[in-house]
Amino acid sequence: MPINAVAACTLASAMLAIASAPWALDVAWLNFAFKPLTTALIIGHAWTRGRQQPAVRRWILCGLVLSLVGDVALMWPRQGFLPGLIAFLLAHLAYIVAFTREHRLFARATPVAIYALVAGAVLVLLWPSVPAGLRVPVACYVLALTAMSAQAAVVGLAAHDGDCSRDRLLVLGGALFMTSDALLATNRFALPLPAANLWILATYWAAQWCIASWLSAAAGRGGPAATSP
């Protein structure tokens, strides 16, 4: 399927999943059908890419599949929260492994410091509202998320000094993932956000698309690998 068709299908599926919320269509089955489908379409997008980067591709696909597991778990917000949190923690670790195939861990101090400050501020604000039984897994998750986002910035900025579109997509993907999870945590532990699933899921799937698009596109006949997302 051409990339434009995959992108259009992914967008349509994401919109239907988001529209399942009570503030929109209030049709629960749309969420159960289209939330996993959207992530599966992003996995399909990644599957066609990265043939020249086999180790990186393998770990990105692993992270996306673990994210799909987390998506399914979180469709049951109470019972599935901890399993979903663990699945996404493992997904971030898989992404970190993928990113370190390209550049050593935390090779640039500035993005690491920025993400650490942002994550620390969010955690301090939300910590009193986090149930005692979830504090250790939440803290571990935040650490993994912060490391993943920072390493995405390290790789994206170091690879071509920020000039390559794919590298910029990776930087954006890490930032969007941090934004999505900060919104999710705020909505769950602090105060309900208006149209929460719109902002949480839109930034989440945009992040995953950016990470998948960082993988190099398949080479054309007799030509170099394409670089468009």
What's a concise summary of this model?
With 229 residues, the chain is mainly alpha-helical. Helix content is 72%, strand content 0%. The chain is built from eight helices and no strands.
Strand-residue proportion: under 5%
Number of separate domains: 1
Q: What is the H/E order? A: HHHHHHHH
Structural class: mainly alpha
Estimated helix fraction = over 70%
Shape call: globular
- Rg of Cα set: 17 Å
Number of strands: 0
| Terminal Cα span | 14 Å
Spans of at least 5 consecutive residues with low confidence = 221-228
Q: What is the typical, i.e. mean, pLDDT? A: 92
**If helices are DSSP runs of H or I spanning 4 or more residues, what is the number of helices?**
8
| Major sheet characteristics | none
Which structural traits does this protein have?
229 residues; mainly alpha
Describe the structure.
With 229 residues, this protein is mainly α. It has one domain (53-214). Helices cover 72% and strands 0% of the residues. Residues 221-228 have low confidence and may be disordered.
How is the secondary structure organized here?
Blueprint: H1 3-18, H2 28-47, H3 54-73, H4 81-100, H5 109-126, H6 135-159, H7 165-190, H8 196-214
